[in-house]
Amino acid sequence: MTEEQEVIAVDGPAGSGKSTVSKELAKRLDWDYIDTGAMYRCLCLKALQSSISVEDEDSLVDLLNDTTMRMSFKDDGLKVFMDGEDVSKDIRRNRVNQQVSKVAALPGVREKLVEKQQALGEEGKVIMDGRDIGTVVFPQARYKFYLDATLDIRAQRRYNELQQASEDVSFNSVVEEIEERDATDRGRASGPLKPAEDACIIDTSDFTIEEVVEKIMEKIEAKQDA
Description:
This protein is α/β, with parallel strands linked by helices and 226 residues long. 50% of the residues lie in helices and 19% in strands.
C-alpha cells in the first residue's frame, strides 16, 4: 500500500468555496496553501497578453516553459506572481475567467503543471485546491474533500466577486459562463473534474465558510485521532 501524503486536497467546481475554505484551513493549521487554479490562470493571462491562442497546445507548453510562477500566502491573503510581477488581481478578471478552462483542458499543459504542483507539495503539510488534486495530483493525499453547491449559489458568489472587482457583467452571463466551464471541466479527457472515490463530499450551498471549515476540521481531527 502506498504511503499517505500529508496533503489536504480540496476539489470542486467554480464558486463552490474551495479557495476561501482552503485559505482559512491554512491559517488554522499553519500549513502552506497552493491555489492550482491560479497556475492555469497565469498561463491563460500570459497567452492573452502575448496574443497566443488559448487552444494552441504546443505554443502554450512552450510559453509555460518560459514562465515562472510563485505564490505567497500570508495574513493579508494570497499573492500570485508571474515572471516576478504581482498578477493576483489580473488573473481574476473576467477575460481570464472566460478562457481559462480551455487552457486547463489541454493535456500537455496539465502534464507540465501537475509536475509543478507535485513538486510544491512533496514535503507535505500543504493544502492544495483545484479540480483534480485528489484524483490526479495527489491521489494518496491523507485528506480529500470535494466541495459543491447549486448552480445559482455558485453563480451568485462569482457575480459578487466580479462586482467587487468592478467588472461589468450580468448575472445571467455569469450563470452561462459557469455552466460552460462545468461542462468543459467535467468533460475533458485529462484530469476531469470529479470527486475522488474516497473524498468527503460537502454541499456548501446552505453553509457559511466558517461552518464548512468546521466540518472539515472535524473530519481532519477525527482521522488524526484514529
